Amino acid sequence: MRKRWKPALFGALAGAVNGSFGAGGGMVLAPLLRKFGGLQKRRVLPTALSVMLPVSAVSFAVCALQQGVDLPAAWPYCLGGVLGGLLAGGLYAKIPLRWLHLALGLLIVWGGVRQFL
User: How far is it, in rounded angstroms, from Cα 116 to Cα 6?
Assistant: First the structure.
């Protein structure tokens, strides 16, 4: 029974982070999947993404219903995001994990510094 509530709790935490900040749920979920889910490093990202897709859809629906969304403004970003996702997804298995971790760490630090400036 104990093992059943952990994934639900971790998913709820990821959903709360994603719903509160518009992103970041995967950053919470990925290390939890690695540590408690026992997943191999290369399987964490696709597994976290499979969780974050419906979580992001729910977060989007709630925000869109409460505040509305400017879809014409969003479409160019969606197109670029899909193309970037295709490119990065294809390269994911070819890039050393060390480089990916470093790049993510730098991105997080950059985002954190921007929040304070």
Answer: 34
pLDDT digits over 31-90, tens only? 888 888 788 888 888 888 888 888 888 888 988 899 888 989 988 888 998 898 889 888
Measure CA of the first residue to CA of the last residue in the chain; give whole Å: 46
User: Considering only CA atoms, which of 50, 46, 12, 4 is closest in space to residue 28?
Assistant: 12
Distance of alpha carbon 17 from alpha carbon 24, whole angstroms: 6
Other C-beta atoms closer than 10 Å to the C-beta of 52 total: 23
Give domain limits for the chain.
Answer: 1-69, 70-117
Whole-structure pTM value: 0.67
